[in-house]
Amino acid sequence: MERKLLLSLFFGVFCILISIVTHAAEVSMQSPIGYWKTVDEVTGKPKSIVQIWRTNDNKLMGKVIKVFAKDSKKSSICTKCTGENLNQPIVGMVIISGLQAKEKQWINGEILDPENGKKYSCNLRTLENGKRLHVRGYVGLPLLGRSQTWERVDLMSG
């Protein structure tokens, strides 16, 4: 009898642990933290890989870690940027900053487009259980902007 009780208790604890691990994996996949492939809207070809991370004050930041260059050196430098980013390498450049979590999206951030050097207000949210990222850049109101969909990439798989 005592053995049955111990087995039942063990099985119950095991099920709870599996549930917690599964839920944690789901939540992490729905988070925008990770690596994302940006795609050229005209050609459909990859443009860059962006790493998104959470800061100590719980805001999201993102930087370019790889550029799939069209014109090798020419497109690897931000010639149209202003201030400290002018003529700096795009790889390593922080292009997303200040995003704050609100329900199932991240809002009130800023995104830099290295192709034209302009900064835009930015919101983002994950799609398809975290496999895609909807990125909205805009001036003024979110209605006055454009969106891109980025694809999650796993840099560990090759």
Task: Based on the model shown, name its key terms.
158 residues; 2 domains; alpha+beta; 18% helix; 1 helix; 10 strands
Indicate the topology.
Blueprint: H1 2-30, E1 34-39, E2 46-54, E3 59-67, E4 77-78, E5 88-89, E6 94-102, E7 105-113, E8 118-127, E9 132-138, E10 145-153
Could you please describe the fold and organization of this structure?
This protein folds into two domains: 1-30; 32-157, Lipocalin (Beta Barrel). An eight-stranded antiparallel beta barrel has the order 1-2-3-6-7-8-9-10. The termini are far apart. The protein has one helix and ten strands, in the order αββββββββββ. It has one helix spanning 2-30, and strands spanning 34-39, 46-54, 59-67, 77-78, 88-89, 94-102, 105-113, 118-127, 132-138, 145-153.
**What percent of residues adopt helix (DSSP H or I)?**
10-25%
* Order of the strands making up the biggest sheet: 1-2-3-6-7-8-9-10
Shape: globular
Distance between the termini: 52 Å
Strand percentage: over 45%
Q: Provide the residue-averaged pLDDT.
A: 84
SSE class: alpha+beta
Radius of gyration: 20 Å
Number of DSSP strands? Answer: 10
Tell me which oligomeric state these chains represent.
single chain
N-to-C SSE string, H for helix and E for strand? HEEEEEEEEEE
Give the uncertain stretches in residue-range form: 9-28
- State the major sheet: 8 strands, antiparallel, barrel
What is the CATH topology classification name of the largest domain?
Answer: Lipocalin
Number of H- or I-type helical stretches = 1
Count of individual domains? 2
Q: Assign the CATH class of the largest domain.
A: Mainly Beta
